[in-house]
Write a structure and sequence with these properties.
This protein is mainly α. It is built from 6 helices and no strands. Helix 2 crosses helix 3. The longest helix has 14 residues.
Length: about 90
């Protein structure tokens, strides 16, 4: 059991967390084609404000499944950055 826990911990350390730049790029990609005013500013806010423990989950979301996969924290962060119902 201890070996499994160590392996999981090493995997987590090795994978790292996406940078704010990667989160921003995904946000821009996810919102492409939507008529969102000031999307660059909103994505910058999103990238800077999304809590670190939510980043990996956001990076794994397929934007087509946003409603079923986004967490409450993601929705709240999007709203605070001005996305409203069109969070990234």
């Amino acid at each position: 059991m201890l070996r499994k826990l160590c392996a999981v911990a090493l995997f987590a350390l090795g994978t790292g967390t996406a940078s704010a730049g990667e989160v921003y790029d995904k946000c821009i990609s996810d919102t492409a084609g939507q008529d969102i005013p000031d999307v660059e500013q909103k994505c910058s806010c999103w990238a800077d404000s999304l809590p670190g423990d939510e980043v990996a989950a956001y990076m794994a979301i397929d934007v087509a499944n946003w409603e079923s996969e986004a967490t409450d924290v993601m929705n709240d962060t999007g709203a605070s950055c001005g996305f409203g119902d069109a969070a990234p």
